[in-house]
Design brief:
Order of helices and strands: EHEHEHEHEEHEHHEHEH
Structural class: alpha/beta
CATH topology: TIM Barrel
Radius of gyration: 16 Å
Oligomer: single chain
Distance between the termini: 13 Å
Number of helices: 9
CATH superfamily: Aldolase class I
Largest sheet: 9 strands, parallel
Strand content: 15-25%
Helix content: 40-55%
CATH class: Alpha Beta
Strand order of the largest sheet: 5-4-3-2-1-9-8-7-6
CATH architecture: Alpha-Beta Barrel
Length: 198
Amino acid sequence: MTQPIIAILRGLTPADALAVGQALIDAGIDRIEVPLNSPDPLESIRLMATAFAGQATIGAGTVLTVEDVARVADAGGRMIVSPNANPEVIRESRRRGLESYPGVFTATECFTAIDAGATGLKLFPADQGGIGVLKALRAVLPRDMPVYAVGGVGPSNFADWFAAGAQGFGIGTSLYKPGDSAESVGQRAREMVAALPA
């Protein structure tokens, strides 16, 4: 069952990719991004995209250029997540049939991203704007445009963010830090899934 969480595995190495990826999938989290400032991220993406084809959507985070999009696509990635709203990156992602989740913080960035074809929006850093920013944005955004809150969100405030109009979350260090065992990641993932509002 797909949960409204994108796991952000910053610092993941290819040696740990399959075990950590499997632990997340087993817990019900089947959307996984490997930020491009991780060690050998394209190899981690390739390994997981091959092993988990049909089970999970694997992609890259911290994607900043059109060239990055091409490299991720060539590695088998199906999802592009960025900290910013670059129309060229969004359009190239969509041209290649990939999902695109650009980072936004203002109404201008949101609508620039939507006009470029974004699949969903990544409110980042969510904790700096707070729930009030999301509520204000949701008042003007298309109802069918998903918004994922990323940065400073977790089980303690999932319900509040959902009530404000979030459709999901990107979870990083509270789910995975370099060196964490697959078992510990799986345990935290199960706890997060359990904390989602029914």
